[in-house]
Amino acid sequence: METEYGYGGAHSREPRRHFLPPVLRAPFEGRTFREFGYLLLSLPISIVLFCWAVTMVSMSAGLLITFVGIPLMAVSLLGCRALGVVERARARALLGVEIAEPRSVRARGGVMAWVGGVLKSGVSWRHLLYSVVHFPWALFAFVTSVTTWTVGWTLLSYPLWQWVFPTYTNQNGIQIYGGEPHNVYLDTPATVALTALVGLVITLIVPWLIRALAAMDKVLVVGLLGPSRLEERVSELESDRGVVVDATAADLRRIERDLHDGAQARLVALAMDLGLAKEKLTEDPQAAAVMVDEAHGEVKVALQELRDLARGIHPAVLTDRGLDAALSSVASRCTVPVQVEVDLPARPVPAIEGIAYYTVSELLQNISKHSGASRATVDVWRAGDRLMLQVGDNGRGGADASAGSGLAGLAERLDAVDGILAVDSPRGGPTTITAELPWRA
Fold first, then answer.
1. 195-248: per-residue pLDDT in tens?
2. Architecture of the structural domain at 321-438
3. pLDDT 10s digits, 143-184
């Protein structure tokens, strides 16, 4: 496998410049209105969720003494899961939260197997818990946000509509105290201005209050309606297993191709040459000797190809002497002078050693073929329970693991063993690629 650098212009969008500080922008930003809309919709939706959950669960619990109660409980949990789909979609649209869909119920064997799968699923019970818990929170968030929003804008705009009181109610303004012999109204220029100032303060605070309330909703949605950490880990391991299987199949195809097109073809030609030499041995010994000499040269070439192939699979020097000697051997074959520094207190497990060797080998091939560098470095060290690899060069740069190049495949291989590949390669260079692997000694 040959990992290629990707060269191309990266168009970065400059962040928008704002002339107002965040505290003054917040009341008019789209995020504030989206989150406020989310809080407004939460109350009616949570009422539906709460009523469904309490009614159906109570009914099914009362009927558990009969056969009907068990499938009815499964139906109630399934209804909570269906409403959870709506809640996840609403959170994505209004809160900008990306929530993965939890695993669906997997059951084989008919209706009762499906009922058992629903009842044993932790996802179903977490949806039920969300349906019950979210109602009081949604009520609190709705009342708090609507009240503060309304009061803030009402008081801020009071100078614009204060005239309504003397015109239609026979009062001078908002009455804040009423009783004989004194009635206190907000009707003087000073009190009207003070009212507007209080309204301004509340209006500026409300967006941050709304964001705090929405943040709590995010916690509830992600924690109860999203997949659990165990499910995410299982999905990640399944994905990693697919990557490992694909990478292994690709390596086997590469080995088969190298054997078929290289050493095998050369050995077939060698067998034919030796057969011709055998026939000429009695008729023309001198010509036969020349053919045998040529066959001897072909044997040496075939042996070298087999050694190169074996070295690409798992070099003997890596098994015998570890990463330091193996990486020094790889660096010696690079077309660019490479400085190798390996500082390891012990050797990691052979599987991690092999991946580290493969990673550095691929990156050094990149430097030889694509970077245009005049020097390179390889540093290997241990940091806690991680094996760190760093390969750098002073070439033209422009390497990008997200551009669909071979670096992306290398990153997938590292990710399959909980590793990380970080690429720092601005156009014009220099390039620094850091790989992080689990130690697993």
1. 999 999 999 999 999 999 999 999 999 888 887 565 555 555 555 455 555 555
2. 2-Layer Sandwich (3.30)
3. 999 999 999 999 999 889 888 888 888 787 887 776 666 677
The secondary structure element, H or E, covering residue 433 is strand 431-438
Q: Where are the domains of the chain?
A: 22-225, 232-313, 321-438
Which residues make Cβ contacts (< 8 Å) with residue 225, sequence separation at least 6? Answer: 84, 87, 88, 91, 99, 102, 126, 127, 130
8-state DSSP, 28: G
Give me 142's structure tokens: 């709705």
Categorise residue 125: left if φ over 0, alpha if ψ from -120 to 50, beta otherwise: alpha
CB under 8 A, 24+ apart: contacts of 401-408: 403/6, 403/8, 404/6, 405/3, 405/4, 405/5, 405/6, 406/1, 406/2, 406/3, 406/4, 406/362, 406/366, 407/3, 407/4, 407/5, 407/6, 407/433
Is residue 342 within 8 A of residue 323, CB to CB? The reply is yes
pLDDT by residue (tens digit) across 338-377?
888 888 888 888 878 888 888 888 888 888 887 788 888 9
Task: Evaluate if pTM is beyond 0.70.
Answer: no
Are the CB atoms for 83 and 90 separated by under 8 Å?
A: no
